[in-house]
Design goal:
The chain is elongated, with a radius of gyration of 13 Å. By secondary structure, the chain is mostly helical. The protein has one domain. Helix 1 crosses helix 2. The longest helix has 27 residues.
Length: about 50
């Protein structure tokens, strides 16, 4: 749970303590997608150089 809260704070700039359970779950999924997309974009950038 701490990792999920950290992802929400870092990538979405939202305080997870203010979210309800269902909204928290949706924000975790969104934060995971943002993290994946960021890492993929960085990998693509490094491959083109």
């Amino acid at each position: 749970m701490l990792l999920a809260d950290s992802l929400i704070r870092a990538y979405l700039h939202i305080d997870p303590a203010t979210l309800g359970d269902e909204e928290w779950g949706l924000q975790v999924v969104l934060a995971e997608w943002v993290k994946y997309d960021f890492i993929k974009s960085m990998g693509d950038l490094w491959q083109t150089r």
